[in-house]
Amino acid sequence: MNDKVIISCALTGAWSPKEKNPAVPCTPQEIADAAYESWQAGAAVVHLHMRDDKGNGSMDIEKFRESIRLIREHKDCDVVINCTSSGAANLKEEDRLAHFIGIPEIEMGSCDIGSFNWGDSAIFDNSPAFLKKLCDVYDKHDIKPEVEIFDYGMLGNTKHYIKNGYIKNPVWCQFVLGVLGGMDATVENLLYLVNHRPEGSVWSALGIGTEHLPIMYATLALGGHIRVGLEDNLYMSRGVKGTNPMMVERAVRVVKEFGKQPATPAEAREILGIKPFVL
Asked: Is the peptide bond before 265 cis (omega within 30 degrees of 0)?
């Protein structure tokens, strides 16, 4: 599996504005269509956020349920379904947990392993008490945590949660670089995180906005997996708006040019320790 690279596609996020790029999916049908097309293009994993009727981030369980139902209506599609635990502002804990408890098709879930100031607008609150509840829900419902790491201190948190049995190996670390309040999206910062990651972990990385390509190339050089999609970046290049499938297609080309192969969803599940999916 050393020559296999997992390509994840984060389809919409909670904040990417449709006004800046009409390809940003907002309705369950749009999200499901983007997921299917991204899988066809070569994504092994799709990362799902939901939007309300005004296009704002939402944790509405029925929107998650409908989006996943529409994805799985495609009987040929075995893409790994990964859902956010932090897709809207001012959330209650139960809002962040309900879909993981109530929707058995969810295979992965984000685990933002610390709190910080998200830019100059809000506190991204992930208290130890909440994280322990989240990890317990993931364990009970056989959901793979996607441990999202925004700065070096979160690596210490990750190692603590592994040591105390809240997160099990192989740990899936997603390095998120370029959010104001976290680490800048530089190759130097990525290298530092990679060199200090938990022993035996599997890792992926992304750069927000204009830094998505340098971080993608560096990630491949360092032996990691990659994430693309309109949650993280709206453009293919300056002034050229992208779509989720276009970003996946470029990632596939880059992976192959690097001498590796995109992992299939089945291969991604094997790498990540997720149970096989039955079509």
From this structure: no
